[in-house]
Design a protein that fits this description.
The structure holds three protein chains of three kinds. By secondary structure, chain B is an alpha/beta fold. Chain B contains 17 helices and 22 strands. By secondary structure, chain C is mainly α. Classes of the chains: A mainly alpha, B alpha/beta, C mainly alpha. Chain B: This is Putative ABC transporter ATP-binding protein.
């Protein structure tokens, strides 16, 4: 087992799994901090994955694909805002509807545009290639993890400190936190919280879109029905666990991504695929239980 | 700044909250706006501040008619408001709270906290008020939070300051300090509006007083030209209900005994608390809100577990029992928060009235409900407690605050238990309902029940209690006997871990 | 009189707009795929309610049996304020248990059938209870816990029919057939199995339970305000677990209906891919959790799905349009029918 963890090729595969979860979770974190209970990350991711393939296929550029993915995510963010913020629909109901909408639209468009069911792969889909970082790639072990990943991985990595500083020191960051903590106070201060929440939703859509792009045009060069496969939900859990704080979020995403990667890896060791497929969800549950147990213990300690 | 409100009318759906009110506010004057709950005072000020929009009427500032599209406009024109429920972000620092929505920004929209600090240092020097800017607001005391709110207003260079019930959460001594600050503002030429329902304060600090009732302006005049009685009559629209007289009565056996109870809360636990409650007496627990009263109540009723200590109810120790078992042993509970804890607003009046009933067989047959019996029960409460509602099948949310509270009181008192725990039982209800609820509590006492009255309203505690315990900082700081004479002693105990008076 | 008339118009107008919005979105999708609109619409109607001797209507009813069943299961949880979105897992647990018991247990067919149905209900209840225990004793919010539990049971089922109980000669990932004597009979002259009778029974139970029992009354109070329920001394934890068990048992029953009425074995993905559980959830949300309207809403969504299949046959519109239509309906209706859910769901109950 230890051999496996220290195997550089295993370690190098972790970022592929971390990136979509991290990007989606960062988006979800913005919503969480802004007081929008967005559990439609699964749908956002899926839509992004499809739009990325669409953009890349028709333009021949992964960057256009990523842009299309961001736009698609933002479009869903706009839908969320329209029905939750403006029309006052319940956020859980809206989330469930958006998850279904994404599942429906992607399969529908898959047939309507490409005339295939299940999956679409084509040489015309151009994916992100590995980005080699000079100097860093020469560092043993670490270099193999940090270098040679997709551009989206570096974007995700950069987003963590950026979001931390943004929330702590930026005007909009301050207002996002206020919208989530005490929206009424923000309104009394003269800033309409729903506007701030709309911005958070759009940014969340863009980030999730990028996460989807990582799934479809960086990890592989194809789109499969329902290819987000629960990662959006894992991102939701990561957000809830960390209450949307960027750094803890990063480490949780790293953990979930590593388990995801590990489950892929141990398939080669003769364990039935069904059991390895289960691992990310069981790991998520275990982390949930462990963290709440730890928090309860700490809360007891505090009062003593 | 001179402000004129002309013919203001505000409607919420079919309800007219403010009806054709005209009012002037002069610079360098402290203007008291009084009236009972629901009279429209807060709505009128929210309108002036841009939080609600008028159906008719105009706002004129220094001779120029203004229309706000949001509070931001009002703030930009020099208005500032300290709301009754503080508009603060608990997890943010004092500094972040003060600059929020008025942030000095540098490059890329990042906040220039250093510039904000410099301005606040200047303000602190000028007005002599200061708070540690790096503290998290959630860890401040109530009066410190109010100071933060006032700093927010000053930071925005407000010329007109509106304070909505600013003294409700303060001890008498903290109130004095606040009034000093307000006089300081008056001297600096600012206009101040203070919304209140406490006549003593009006007489103490106001230059001009306006009285509202049922959405209308009853009178507006200089304080010198009116009298306390005249204002009081204006508030209630007639004579005040006469002061309640307490029937002399010897207290009976101990029915509730609390020994060294401690209950968890954020930071340090509450307690240890010990006291006895006897049949036929009302024991008041006074104190500024947030000094451990709500934790104590949750521990007594079984909503939260005790960390240590014991509770005996009618001679039986109940500290390990759950809510239902304690209720069955003879405890009723009127919670402070009728919207969430006292009632299920989405359910009907009947469903609310029958909840938590002990005599289950009276309204069920096996597992099935007998709707007729439930309706009859609800109708009886509606009549006995003079609740104004369409009927037992109306949704609880359709009732006014006072009637909601009467339903909660009715449901709990009808259970006829030895002990009644009443937590701020008249919070935010109209004078009629307050008087009625006080009467019912007193009737229960006279008929030999024991009432534990937890209230942050000092007047209420003094008017009703046979004995008064004062809570400060999670412990009982002293006990005094009831009655008006001891007001000062109670006030002193409310802000120190003093020795019993 | 005048006044009520005006009021009615004011109430109806927003609904008219809603219908118009939904219709124009569907129309836009049809135009996007270049389908002949007239044929598509008649195909939809035929697919949902027509067919030779109403064969398609029977298909709609057969699908309703599952969707309404899931909706009833979800409704009981939601009304109690329990955001149990793990119906899928409970359904799979039930279907799996039903199939395996029927294959493994020897005995007279009726006994086997009864045992299998009981086993399915127990399995569903157990899976739901697991989510409840995770919430109450381990601090995992029900919303998240119940959802995450969908995945392991799905893979367990997949493993069991891919390896130990696989019907290898069939070449598919599926179990052996259950004994033919245990199959649900068809209504005479139709291809509609009697599974729908079980759903109707469950529906009747749920209606009586919701409107007429003490337990239903108490769980509803808990659903409207958990703080209130605690304050008046209702046994909140016990109510939670009992409600989840009932919910899960009904979902398990639906799994058994699918096995004995439709597939006659457990096929990998047969309960997951058609999104029965999610359709059940949105059927409940569509009518704001009002019990008597839930079966109607469930039938409506079943008709949308079979109608979409008809549209595909008649006009070549991909039948996946059904999902889009459902989502759009929920989006537009969700903002009108207020389901007071999120105020307390998701964040856990802070009990931990």
């Amino acid at each position: 087992m230890l051999d496996l963890l220290l195997d550089p090729s295993f370690a190098a595969s972790i970022p592929r799994f971390v990136t979509p979860i991290l990007l989606a979770a960062l988006g979800g974190a913005l919503c969480e901090r802004a007081g929008v209970f967005n559990i439609a990350l699964e749908g956002f991711l899926l839509m992004g994955a499809f739009a990325a393939v669409l953009g890349s296929y028709f333009s021949g550029s992964p960057y256009v694909g990523a842009l299309a993915a961001m736009l698609a995510g933002m479009a869903l963010g706009l839908v969320f805002a329209e029905f939750n913020l403006r029309r006052g629909g319940d956020s859980i109901v809206v989330s469930i509807a958006i998850n279904l909408l994404a599942a429906g639209l992607t399969t529908f468009l898959l047939r309507a545009i490409f005339d295939v069911t299940g999956a679409f792969s084509d040489a015309g889909i151009v994916g992100f290639g590995p980005v080699r970082l000079p100097l860093i790639e020469d560092i043993p072990f670490v270099g193999q993890i940090l270098s040679g990943q997709s551009a989206l991985f570096y974007v995700a990595l950069l987003c963590v400190p950026l979001m931390h500083v943004f929330l702590a020191r930026h005007r909009l960051g301050l207002r996002i936190r206020a919208a989530g903590e005490n929206a009424e106070a923000l309104r009394a201060g003269g800033v309409e919280p729903r506007r701030v929440q709309l911005v958070a939703l759009l940014a969340c859509g863009a980030l999730c879109g990028l996460g989807g792009a990582q799934l479809s045009i960086a990890n592989v060069n194809l789109f499969v029905e329902n290819m987000s496969a629960g990662r959006g939900w894992i991102a939701v859990v990561a957000v809830l666990l960390t209450r949307g704080r960027p750094w803890p979020l990063f480490f949780i995403a790293l953990l979930f991504g590593a388990v995801d990667s590990l489950s892929f890896r141990v398939q080669g060791l003769g364990l039935a695929q069904q059991f390895t497929d289960m691992m990310p969800y069981l790991a998520t549950l275990i982390v949930l239980v462990a963290l709440s147990w730890w928090r309860a213990r700490r809360a007891r300690g505090e009062t003593r | 700044m001179r402000v004129e409100l002309n013919g203001i009318t505000v409607r919420f759906g079919p309800v007219t909250a403010v009806d054709d009110v005209s009012l002037g506010i002069e610079p360098g004057e402290i203007h008291a706006l009084v009236g009972e709950n629901g009279a429209g005072k807060s709505t009128l000020m929210n309108l002036l501040f841009g939080l609600v929009r008028p159906a008719a009427g105009t706002v004129v500032l220094d001779g120029v008619e203004r229309r706000w599209s949001s509070p931001q406009d009002a703030i930009a024109s020099g208005l500032g408001m300290v709301h009754q429920h503080f508009m603060l972000q608990d997890t943010m620092t004092v500094l972040e709270n003060i600059v929020l929505c008025a942030e000095p920004v540098g490059r890329f929209g990042f906040v220039d906290f250093a510039a904000a600090r410099r301005r606040l240092d200047a303000i602190a020097a000028e007005h002599g008020i200061a708070v540690d800017l790096t503290r998290e607001v959630g860890r401040l005391s109530v009066s410190q939070r109010q100071t933060v709110e006032i700093l927010k207003v000053l930071y925005r260079e407000a010329e007109l300051v509106i304070l909505d019930e600013p003294t409700a959460v303060l001890t008498p001594q903290e109130k004095d300090r606040l009034f000093d600050t307000l006089r300081n503002f008056r001297a600096a030429g600012k206009s101040i509006v203070i919304i209140t329902h406490k006549l003593d304060e009006v007489m103490e600090i106001a230059d001009r007083v306006s009285v509202m009732r049922a959405g209308r302006l009853v009178r507006s005049s200089l304080l010198d030209e009116t009298s306390r009685q005249e204002i009081a009559r204006g508030i209630v629209g007639g004579e005040l209900p006469e002061a309640r007289t307490r029937k002399a009565q010897a207290a009976g056996d101990v029915v509730l005994s609390v020994r060294d109870a401690t209950i968890a809360r954020r930071g340090r636990p509450v307690g240890p608390v010990s006291f006895d409650l006897r049949a036929g007496e009302i024991v008041g627990i006074a104190g500024v809100s947030g000094n451990g009263q709500s934790e104590l109540v949750r521990g007594l009723t079984g909503l939260d577990p005790l960390l240590s200590g014991g509770i005996s109810l009618c001679g039986q120790s109940v500290e390990t029992l759950d809510v239902a078992a304690r209720r069955a042993h003879g405890m009723s509970y009127i919670p402070e928060d009728r919207q969430r804890m006292g009632l299920a607003l989405g359910a009907s009046v009947s469903e609310n009235a029958n909840a938590g009933r002990d005599d289950r067989s009276a309204f069920t047959t096996g597992p099935f409900l007998r709707h007729g019996a439930m309706m009859r029960f609800a109708r009886a409460i509606i009549e006995d407690y003079r609740i104004r509602v369409a009927g037992p099948s109306a949704a609880a949310s359709t009732m006014s605050g006072g009637n909601k509270q009467k339903l909660v009181v009715g449901r709990e008192l009808t259970r006829n238990t030895a002990v009644v725990v009443a937590e701020n039982p008249t919070w935010g209800v109209d004078i009629g309902a307050i008087d009625f609820i006080h009467g019912e509590l007193m009737r229960m006492r006279d008929s030999g029940h024991a009432i534990l009255l937890i209230s942050t309203e000092l007047d209420e505690v003094i008017a009703l209690s046979d004995r008064i315990l004062v809570m400060y900082d999670g412990a009982i700081s002293g006990e005094v006997s009831g009655g008006e004479a001891n007001r000062e002693d109670v006030g002193a105990l409310m802000m120190s871990r003093g020795k019993a008076a | 009189m005048m006044e009520t008339g005006a009021l009615n118009l004011r109430n109806v107008l927003p609904w008219l707009w809603t219908v118009l919005w939904i219709a124009s979105i569907v129309l836009a999708l049809l135009l996007f795929v270049g389908a002949p609109v007239g044929e598509a619409l008649s195909g939809f109607w035929q697919g949902a309610f027509g067919g030779r001797r109403h064969a398609y209507l029977m298909a709609t009813l057969s699908r309703s049996a599952l969707i309404v069943g899931m909706a009833i299961s979800v409704m009981l949880s939601f009304r109690a304020g329990l955001f149990n979105i793990g119906g899928e897992g409970q359904l799979v647990a039930g279907g799996l248990a039903a199939g395996l018991i029927a294959i493994l247990l020897p005995g007279p067919p009726l006994v086997v059938l009864a045992a299998a149905i009981a086993g399915a209900m127990l399995a569903g209840a157990a899976w739901a209870l697991l989510a409840g225990v995770l919430q109450l004793y381990m601090g995992v919010p029900l919303l998240v816990g119940s959802l995450l539990l969908n995945y392991p049971i799905r893979y367990i089922g997949s493993y069991l029919v891919a390896h130990p109980f696989r019907d290898v000669p069939s070449g598919m990932v599926q179990s052996y057939l259950v004994p033919q004597a245990t199959w649900f009979a068809y209504f005479p002259g139709t291809r509609l199995d009697i599974g729908i009778l079980f759903t109707l029974t469950a529906t009747a139970f749920a209606l009586v339970y919701s409107y007429g029992t003490l337990h239903g009354y108490h769980t509803r109070l808990n659903g409207l305000s958990a703080d209130f329920a605690r304050t008046v001394g209702l046994p909140v934890r016990r109510l939670t677990l009992q409600t989840l068990a009932i919910s899960g048992a009904i979902a398990g029953l639906v799994g058994a209906i699918a096995v004995f009425g439709i597939h006659h074995r457990y096929i990998d993905g047969m309960l997951v891919q058609p999104l029965y559980a999610w359709t059940g959830i949105i059927a409940v949300l569509l009518v704001g959790m009002v019990p008597w309207a839930v079966p109607i809403s469930g039938f409506f969504f079943a008709a949308v799905q079979t109608g979409a299949a008809g549209m595909e046959r008649a006009a070549g519109v991909p039948k996946e349009i059904a999902l889009v239509i459902q989502a759009v309906i929920i989006l537009f209706v969700a903002s009108r029918v207020s389901g007071a859910l999120s105020s307390r769901a998701g964040r856990g109950d802070g009990d931990a």
